[in-house]
Amino acid sequence: MEFLEGIPNILYKYRDISNRFNKKTLFDFEFFLSSTKMFNDPYEGSIPFEYDPKELTEENIFLKLRRVAKQNHPDWDEQKIQEFCYEGHQKRLLFDEEHKKEINRKNKEEIEKTFGILSLTGFPLNYLMWSHYAKSHTGFCIGFDKFGLFETINGSLSAVNYACNVPRLKLFEDIGAFHVKQIATKSKVWEYEGEYRFVKPNAANANITYPKELIKNIFLGVKMTQKNKNEIIEFVKSNEIECEIYELTLDKEKFKLNDSRIY
Fold it and tell me: What one-character DSSP code corresponds to residue 166?
């Protein structure tokens, strides 16, 4: 699997143990593939279709309209296609803000109802991730084998691209390819997450069960109660999960987390 090169062999998911849905990731061996509608970044699924103005020449616009007509109406004859291109050119749809607004609204809806996403990271000791996604260090973090993940989810896996500017749609770019770019591009303010994403078409808000062999290690938060630690350790033992469990502590000299294996 050469396409997985450069991606960490173990990918991590932070969880809040007080959230019954979060607990299912471990205790029910279940992944939830979220719709972009559920994410906390307002740009998720909402990156607009904006063309590079330099590409919007009269010739290119005509060719674009012709391609759209042939894709959407394969039964049209040449005269019908020519009429569509002429009418579209006269209306200047690619410059019409209301038209673009409507296209972006439909695109956002399409992404929300189509794609299921599993967000992971390569960093199990990320201080901010523990704060934001593991209920202020009271939760846990599970490490999964990337090869097993890929075979189980059967979707595309890639690193999130962090950028200052939203991506533009090239005039003749494949829409499906741009959808992937929309889903896998985020602002640099999120760069600390070091996110990797599984994206699966036709799986928005779907649940997928996975074999226990995918679990390679579990990290227990600094502020996790002993009761919750015992619950996870006993679950791992009773289900004969061959994984390592680490307990996190605060370093005494630097602002960082230390881990020590306890199972």
Answer: P
